[in-house]
Design goal:
The complex is a heterodimer of chains A (about 260) and B (about 280). Chain A is an alpha+beta fold. Chain A contains 10 helices and 7 strands. In chain A, the strands form 2 sheets. Chain A has a 5-stranded mixed beta sheet. Chain A has a two-stranded antiparallel sheet with strand order 6-7. In chain A, a hairpin with a 2-residue loop joins strand 1 and strand 2. Chain A is elongated and about 75 Å long. Chain B has 8 helices and 2 strands. In chain B, a hairpin with a 2-residue loop joins strand 1 and strand 2. Chain B starts with about 40 loop residues before the first helix and ends in a 10-residue tail after the last helix. Classes of the chains: A alpha+beta (about 260), B mainly alpha (about 280). Chains A and B meet through strand 1, strand 2, helix 5, helix 8 and helix 9 of A and helix 3 and helix 6 of B. Chain B: Keywords: Membrane, Transmembrane, Transmembrane helix. Chain B: It comes from Streptomyces echinoruber. Chain B: This is Integral membrane protein.
């Protein structure tokens, strides 16, 4: 196999406007889309704005949409495309564009701040936490998240409805709530913070219609929908919609 | 404003921006197309729509037919348990005259409400029909056509939260269908210890029905998912792990059991309407 000239369409512009521009770029064996974007930057468009960092699928910086699908540019091999195929690269389309392939992902940091942090268990100091592996297996899956925000980008609740950004935290931060609610040492309930209830009431869990796009695009392979969002929905049902669970908890509280 | 650069590679003047919401909102990258996907993204929703539509047409016809649902020793899963007086007598079969003589239409309607509700509120089927019939979204990163969206936060879709109650009902129905499968080990004269091709059809169906029912997300939550400390509940932890392995195949089990229940009914229909006789093994 040898190098070839690939046809690319790259979105260029800013909030004032912009469009797709055509380029022909050299591609060599083993390269990924980010390599080609860098070559484009080095040889043809030195002011092309692109955010990147680790080139290893661990920093979550180079998120973009490649042929319309949210992906990491550094983890998308050129070998998955036919040589005569035009590869289209655009910025994430759920967030405000800054310039070219760079978007303002500040929405996600706003939502991150709205999720109450881990509540340390009373009476235990740093270094004294002890947990069983089977208790932390579930939250550990969610800790693989690299915060590339591809799940936030592809979620139609905010992608197709800008107005929902105020009421919906998005899959990444609902997963964070699930992680904390499943954490064996999180003492939020003892302080009066009911994460199950607030997931529904304050972070918009009810907006999720579990169409699994977040899971489909996750570069870490986290089963966001099956292991975080649906379990969190079931926990919210325990709190808000299941009279038998409500009755059981009342009886248990009275007898204890 | 774009800063002035001296490279001479600045993009051309701004394209006119369509004034709409979603991916075409004013602050987002100005791209007129609702999506730029080049793969055949429409195939999965189209296939799902065709499959579900075919089942709805078939099951509606059979549910309202009120005929050809019993061919000794087999009873159609659409009519079991049969809860009205008008049900055909089935020797030691699932007759339970709960509704009496006033029920004037097909008795299948009474019982089908429960498996139908179970599947309608199932987390997999929700994904399937939201995508296939409601286009919310039609596929990932493909713009949906709706102007507003509130998901399952409001009535009527907030009722999807009743899924666990339909799961409890589905357990009972699966129990009755298990009884029907045991009855299928008789011959047409009700002697025990026999098998025919229908027995195999019923066995496959009941295995798939149980696998689908137990792989349910609500079941996974009830058996152990709701716990915070698995280490204090080792038996429930084991059960949760088992259900979790089944749950990973929930979609495949949903389709396989949907097909098997329709095939089991079709088999009984063909026997009862005299198209062919049940091949007997012993």
């Amino acid at each position: 196999m040898s190098g070839y000239e690939a046809r690319f369409q790259v979105w260029r512009g800013d909030r004032e406007g912009g469009g797709l521009e055509d380029f022909t770029v050299e591609v060599n064996d083993g390269e990924v889309v980010l390599d080609v974007i860098h070559r484009l930057q080095a040889t043809q468009v030195p002011d092309l704005a692109v955010r990147w960092n680790c080139k290893a699928g661990k920093c979550g910086s180079c998120s973009a949409e490649i042929n319309g699908r949210p992906r990491l540019m550094c983890m998308t091999r050129m070998s998955v495309f036919a040589r005569d195929e035009t590869v289209t690269v655009t910025p994430l389309r759920a967030f405000p564009v800054v310039r070219d392939l760079v978007t303002d992902v500040g929405f996600n940091y706003t939502k991150a701040r709205q999720v109450p942090a881990f509540v340390p268990p009373p009476g235990l100091g740093p270094g004294e936490y002890r947990m069983f592996q089977q208790d932390v297996d579930r939250p550990q899956e969610f800790r693989k998240c690299i915060e590339c925000f591809l799940c936030q980008d592809t979620c139609h609740v905010v992608r197709d409805h800008e107005e929902n950004k105020t009421v919906f935290a998005g899959p990444r931060f609902l997963m964070r709530i699930a992680e904390l609610d499943m954490h064996p040492l999180d003492a939020a309930a003892e302080t009066g913070l009911d994460r199950k209830r607030t997931a529904q009431d304050e972070h918009g869990l009810g907006y999720c219609n579990i169409t699994k796009c977040c899971t489909e695009v996750c570069p870490e392979g986290i089963r966001i929908t099956d292991n975080a969002l649906i379990p969190l929905k079931e926990r919210a049902v325990d709190r808000k919609y299941d009279p038998l669970v409500w009755l059981g908890s009342k009886i248990r509280r009275r007898s204890s | 404003m774009r800063p002035i650069v001296s490279t001479g590679t600045e993009p051309p003047a701004a394209h006119p921006r369509p004034a709409r919401g979603g991916v075409r909102a004013p602050t987002r990258a100005a791209i007129a197309a609702g999506h730029l996907r080049t793969d055949r993204w429409w195939v999965p929703p189209a296939t799902t729509a065709a499959g579900l539509f075919a089942f709805v047409v078939y099951s509606t016809w059979r549910a309202f037919a009120d005929a050809d649902y019993y061919a000794a020793p087999y009873v159609s899963p659409f009519y079991s348990p049969c809860l009205a007086q008008r049900c055909r007598p089935m020797h030691a079969g699932p007759n339970w005259d709960l509704f009496g003589g006033w029920w004037g239409i097909s008795p299948a309607i009474i019982i089908l409400v429960f498996p139908l509700g179970f599947r309608l509120t199932c987390y997999y089927y929700r994904k399937a029909y939201y995508r296939a019939f409601w286009a919310a979204p039609p596929a990932c990163a493909v713009a949906e056509p709706h102007r507003t969206y509130t998901g399952e936060a409001r009535f009527p879709l907030v009722l999807q939260n009743l899924h666990r109650y339909f799961f409890y009902a589905a357990l009972l129905v699966a129990g009755v269908l298990t009884y029907d499968t045991v009855l299928a080990f008789r011959d047409p004269r009700y002697h025990w210890g026999h098998m025919g091709l229908g027995t195999v059809v019923f066995l496959v169906n009941i295995v798939l029905i149980w696998a689908y029912t137990l792989s349910c997300h609500s079941c996974r939550h009830i058996v152990g998912g709701r716990l915070k400390h698995f280490s204090q509940h080792p038996v429930r932890y084991r059960m949760w792990q088992f259900i979790g392995r089944l749950n990973a195949r929930h979609m495949q089990l949903a389709w396989a059991s949907l097909a098997s229940v329709a095939l089991a009914d079709l088999y009984v229909y063909l026997l009862a309407s005299g198209v062919f006789d049940d091949p007997r093994f012993f």
